[in-house]
Amino acid sequence: MRRRPGLSVRLKLTLSYAGFLAVAGALLLTVVWAFVLRYVPDTPKGLLGIAPNRYLLVRTFVPAAALAMVFLLLFGLAGGWFLAGRMLAPLTRVTAAARMAGKGSLSHRIRMEGRQDEFRELADAFDTMLEQLESHVAEQQRFAANASHELRTPLAISQTLLDVARKDPTRDRDELLARLQAVNTRAIDLTEALLLLSRSDRGNFTRQSVDLSLVAEEAAETLLPLAEQRGITLDVTGGATRTSGSAELLLRMVTNLVQNAIVHNLPAGGTVTVHTEAQHDASVLRVENTGHPVPPELVPTLTEPFRRGTERVRTDEHAGVGLGLAIVHSIVRAHDGTLALVPRPAGGLLVTVRLPGTP
């Protein structure tokens, strides 16, 4: 919004310094007039018969006082302008950095030197904000590029299948429809996952009291057929663990963790353990599974969107869209919690979710 131009802060401070100095000088002269000149007798002989008298003192005092006031005013303007410039120099650097950030350059940092003061705190806070903003923008750009690539793949496959069907009318129609349905289902799952991830990132949901133990039992009951199909033993332990949040999002969080633990497990004879417990002011959910050893350097990338380690890529009906743990991380963050992934020495992962607890 455009505003009418006004006085600069430096000029306002300069006028304030000069005005304050002039008022102080006037007050000092007033004190001199009130407590000195008033006691000088206004007689030809002056004080104790010795000249000068009040008339002569006033004749000499008033011009000198006026000259002193003019000097104080000019000195206040010059000194105020210099001091205001020195005081506002750090603010000028912050303003320049803000303008560069407004033009899209987020890599610039102020890095103000000197001791800790209000301007140093402002500069450090601004540098921290720029760092977080740059990281967030880079993450969003990377996410948008990956999402576009992932969405383009099923659409390209659908286009290819349709072209093949158009050029070869004798091709098996049922096989074509089945492949199109599978590709379309994957595109729908990816779109829903992206919408859920966006919703959890915004954090615009209604909070209510949720028992994580009941959520874990519901997720386990839903995924029990999948676990039995793969020969995985699924156990849910622990007591009531209450937290505040969205029941729908927390159910999706636990479902993703349990499904991930089932899919990325041993071919047969594996186990998945879901445990909930209340610890002081925190509600803790642990999902532990067996499986192949997970390289420690791979663990930090598992919560990034569309990041899959080569050992974790699936080619069956549960291949997923690469957003399972990314959605979990986003939901945990939206509920002011923490997510920890630790590789088990014997293989598999131990996933620990800590959320704020409620009585």
Summarize the amount of helix as a percent range: 55-70%
Structural class: alpha+beta
- The percent range for strand residues is 5-15%
Number of helices: 7
Strand order of the largest sheet: 2-4-5-7-6
Which regions contain 5 or more consecutive residues with pLDDT less than 50?
309-318
Total number of beta strands: 7
Tell me the overall shape. Answer: elongated
Largest sheet: 5 strands, mixed
* Secondary-structure element string: HHHHEHEEHEEHEE
The radius of gyration over CA amounts to 37 Å
How far is it from the N-terminal to the C-terminal residue, by CA? 48 Å
The pLDDT mean sits at 81
Can you describe this structure?
By secondary structure, the protein is an alpha+beta fold. The chain contains seven helices and seven strands; from the N terminus they run ααααβαββαββαββ. A five-stranded mixed sheet has the order 2-4-5-7-6, with helices on one face. α1 (9-35) runs antiparallel to α2 (54-102). Residues 309-318 have low confidence and may be disordered.
Outline the fold blueprint:
Blueprint: H1 9-35, H2 54-102, H3 118-167, H4 173-202, E1 208-211, H5 212-229, E2 233-238, E3 242-245, H6 247-263, E4 271-279, E5 282-289, H7 324-334, E6 338-343, E7 349-356
Helix pairs in contact: 1-2, 2-3, 3-4, 4-7, 5-6, 6-7
